[in-house]
């Protein structure tokens, strides 16, 4: 795996997450069943165009992919703050966001937090709005205080994985074209953040 250049404001944990995503996503693909169309380093042509890239996706530079991952999938959804609290939970959120869009794992995190607060006894419910803001971070920090850092991490990663698996099963059930991707999603996206990273 090639090393990526240091991004301004990116922590070592964020850079390691981006490097892991590059490893899973691979280089150039243009699967006719993928509505994202031509993709390189996991970045679709539509996303590349949004960021000003007009060239052939076969030539899409890894450095621009790295910037997109950091800005769109770590910093903007607030996952940089999550990475600070728990690198493993942050990795789960970022990796899921690259595959399903950052709003989805934000909601999965919020749903998981709400399901673990013992009906508000440990901390208040958060609004499930797909925005990982201060209330969501405070709820996660409270879960860490109640359950301990490692156990809170394991609980959240398990519940986010379960929701992600359900998401993929719904996609495949609603559109048989997505069945093409189920083996890869199951191998590379479900359980890809080992619970041992929570220690």
UniProtKB/TrEMBL annotation:
Cited Gene3D superfamilies: Chitosanase, subunit A, domain 1 (1.20.141.10)
SUPFAM superfamilies associated with the record: Lysozyme-like
TM spans (from-to): none
Protein name: Putative peptidoglycan binding protein
CDD domains: N-acetylmuramidase_GH108
UniProtKB keywords: Signal
Source organism per UniProt: Sphingobium wenxiniae (strain DSM 21828 / CGMCC 1.7748 / JZ-1)
Alphabetized Pfam families for the sequence: Glyco_hydro_108 (PF05838), PG_binding_3 (PF09374)
First and last residue of the signal peptide: 1-19
Domain TtsA-like Glycoside hydrolase family: 19-101
Residues annotated as domain Peptidoglycan binding: 105-188
């Amino acid at each position: 795996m090639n090393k990526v250049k240091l991004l301004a404001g990116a922590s070592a944990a964020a850079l390691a997450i981006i490097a892991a995503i590059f490893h899973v996503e691979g280089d150039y693909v243009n699967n006719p069943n993928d509505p994202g169309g031509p993709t390189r380093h996991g970045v679709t042509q539509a996303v590349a165009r949004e960021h000003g890239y007009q060239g052939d996706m076969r030539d899409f530079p890894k450095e621009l992919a790295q910037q997109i991952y950091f800005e769109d999938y770590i910093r903007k959804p607030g996952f940089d703050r999550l990475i600070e609290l728990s690198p493993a939970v942050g990795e789960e959120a970022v990796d899921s966001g690259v595959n399903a869009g950052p709003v989805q794992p934000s909601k999965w995190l919020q749903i998981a937090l709400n399901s673990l607060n013992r009906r508000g006894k440990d901390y208040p419910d958060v609004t499930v709005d797909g925005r990982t803001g201060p209330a969501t971070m405070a709820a996660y920090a409270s879960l860490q205080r109640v359950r301990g850092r490692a156990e809170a991490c394991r609980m959240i990663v398990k519940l986010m994985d379960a929701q992600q698996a359900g998401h993929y099963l719904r996609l495949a059930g609603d559109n048989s074209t997505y069945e093409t991707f189920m083996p890869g999603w199951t191998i590379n996206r479900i359980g890809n953040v080992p619970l041992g990273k929570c220690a």
